[in-house]
Amino acid sequence: VEPHPARDRVHRIVPADVLDEIENLGAPRCVRRQRAAVNRAGLLVDRVVRTHAIEQVVAFWRKRHPDVVFEMSVGQTSFGARIDEVAYRIVQEAVSNAMRHGEPSQIIIRAEVNDGSALRISVANNGKGLEVNGVQGFGLAGMRERIASLGGELIIGSAADGRGVELSATLPLAMSNSVRDTKREREVQAL
Which residues contact 90 (CB under 8 A, 6 or more apart)? Predict the structure, then answer.
């Protein structure tokens, strides 16, 4: 088999047994099992890709600033491509801003579900804090737009002790995403 970049990336993310099952289900009578196997792989890829992408943001900055301590608790639940993408972009922009402007020694990244109705993402640092007359850049404006497009809320303020910044975003979990994901998980369980 000739090397293929996309296939190689999938092989690194999806377990070999899942890929073998997908490849071995080519017969027409196995369409349902094939679809379920693909969905099972897709669920895993969604979870791994988002978590891996956030880990890559941390790795990028950790390599450049090894003295900064990163604490991360994001889980591996996927909330659908749109919410996952916005969540990733929030973390990416918040960490980037902290590192470029705040000179922190610690950054804490958290993502948790509140009452099953919203995803709350927080990125806190112990850096310089907010400038009183600071100019908002395009990154924060873009973040606000992405969050607003999902009906969410963004709060940026000084940390409780007055040192550093805490960014908190709340993203409602749309009914369509949870219905689609529940159906997908049922198909996986049917295997």
Answer: 121, 123, 143, 146, 147, 167, 169
190 contact partners, CB below 8 Å, separation of at least 6? 32, 36
| 145, two tokens | 């737009």
Helix (H) or strand (E) holding 72: strand 69-73
| Alpha-carbon dihedral angle through residues 7, 13, 18, 24, given to the nearest 10 degrees | 10
pTM, 2 dp: 0.66
Which residues is 155 bridged to in the sheet? 168
Q: Which H/E stretch holds residue 7? A: helix 5-13
Q: Return the structure tokens found at 112.
A: 């948790």
Three-state DSSP at 134 gives coil
Q: Are 73 and 111 in contact (CB under 8 A)?
A: yes
- Summarised one tens digit per residue, pLDDT across range 60-118 is 999 999 999 999 998 877 788 888 889 989 999 999 999 998 999 999 999 999 888 99
For residue 171, what are the β-bridge partners?
A: 119
Residue with tokens 């112990």: 126
Q: How far apart are CA 143 and CA 154, in angstroms?
A: 8
Distances (CA, A) of 189 to 29, 93, 185: 19, 36, 6
Give the pairing type, strands 153-158 and 118-125: unpaired
| Amino acid at site 101 | H
